[in-house]
């Protein structure tokens, strides 16, 4: 019996040894260097040592001292990392064809392989046109806004009311994840999992999605041959990932079979209007593409919005004056609604058309996204040698990393107060309009040909949720603990966000 992967296994063990020894050396040193360039392993040991503060390490220890762009190598793999807006515009817009996601990216996120999330070129353009057609359907947009409003009214507000009445703290990170998971299961599959309930049942599918993003970060950091060996041997994080991928495929299979069996939605006992109904009879998606497409929709909706909402409430709990400004903006609308309903003590919820006009509320959302982008790092590959606007040269097969987290903390872009949470920076001088910021300086919704198709509906959903909570409840931090982030491709909170919410006295 021949072990064809033995050379890769030996190299993987060597790299692991270098990482462990290097990390121990750095940890035992009183003054460890922010980026030690080790033989073979490059800066990998330093990176591993600083994983607990990964994004601050990248922003302040790597990119800031190097002028916002840096070249380095790990096990002979060349990297170019940047947070310089001129480079970002070049990569995502001016010369975007030279910087695809690449084959290795598709392997890292193989559960979504073939979907718009992993493909490039003509396949991406074709799928993007399909996605745009689905997401622009008036009936689907109506479903998305209606489901959001119903979830807030019948799920979120009653749950928070119960927690406030019993004087119980709320884990806002877990609560928002459950809310958005239910919301997008309804939108995509036409079923409501009802995971937002008082007993808070386990969310196995949502946990599987988290695993995909957590192991995805490991695959980004560890040389490909290392994680591929672990995948082949079914050990370590790859074993956990395989189980998570099985859960996701089983879930989508069940949803597809249920649809084909019943032929209608559970949410709306009528002709299907959800996302699945747009794909289930499409011959282009009848093969292996349907599953990764549905998983991509779930991750695009649940992970981005579910990751953003806790950071918004974190910032609001730490900045009561911002909450007061939001309420001032909401007051005229809420007063009219209360007068019409003649129920000033009732829970007040905004309609989609009312949400659109809330400029200051949107500024608070954008400011949270600036400091805490749900996807903190973007990855691209290089097709042909090129020169960046900053003068850095990249070669074919290089890997390009764009730190969105660092862009939001650039003093050259956002001013001396770039570390502060200040929604006013997004407003015109008279405070009535949003100030335009080009996407290469604010990458939360991507940039160029890959600009987020669901941006507008996501903003409406987030504003609907935040407005309902802020108007009806006082939000306070339970304690002053620092918020750590998970080791994930998403900027999720590691230990949740414990808040105290009390019914507001009007």
From TrEMBL:
<keyword id="KW-1133">Transmembrane helix</keyword>
<dbReference type="InterPro" id="IPR036396">
    <property type="entry name" value="Cyt_P450_sf"/>
</dbReference>
<dbReference type="GO" id="GO:0005506">
    <property type="term" value="F:iron ion binding"/>
</dbReference>
<keyword id="KW-0472">Membrane</keyword>
<comment type="similarity">
    <text>Belongs to the cytochrome P450 family.</text>
</comment>
<keyword id="KW-0560">Oxidoreductase</keyword>
<dbReference type="InterPro" id="IPR002401">
    <property type="entry name" value="Cyt_P450_E_grp-I"/>
</dbReference>
<keyword id="KW-0349">Heme</keyword>
<feature type="binding site" description="axial binding residue">
    <location>
        <position position="452"/>
    </location>
    <ligand>
        <name>heme</name>
    </ligand>
</feature>
<dbReference type="InterPro" id="IPR001128">
    <property type="entry name" value="Cyt_P450"/>
</dbReference>
<dbReference type="GO" id="GO:0004497">
    <property type="term" value="F:monooxygenase activity"/>
</dbReference>
<dbReference type="GO" id="GO:0016705">
    <property type="term" value="F:oxidoreductase activity, acting on paired donors, with incorporation or reduction of molecular oxygen"/>
</dbReference>
<keyword id="KW-0479">Metal-binding</keyword>
<dbReference type="InterPro" id="IPR017972">
    <property type="entry name" value="Cyt_P450_CS"/>
</dbReference>
<dbReference type="GO" id="GO:0020037">
    <property type="term" value="F:heme binding"/>
</dbReference>
<protein>
    <submittedName>
        <fullName>Uncharacterized protein</fullName>
    </submittedName>
</protein>
<keyword id="KW-0812">Transmembrane</keyword>
<dbReference type="GO" id="GO:0006629">
    <property type="term" value="P:lipid metabolic process"/>
</dbReference>
<keyword id="KW-0503">Monooxygenase</keyword>
<keyword id="KW-0408">Iron</keyword>
<feature type="transmembrane region" description="Helical">
    <location>
        <begin position="6"/>
        <end position="26"/>
    </location>
</feature>
<dbReference type="Pfam" id="PF00067">
    <property type="entry name" value="p450"/>
</dbReference>
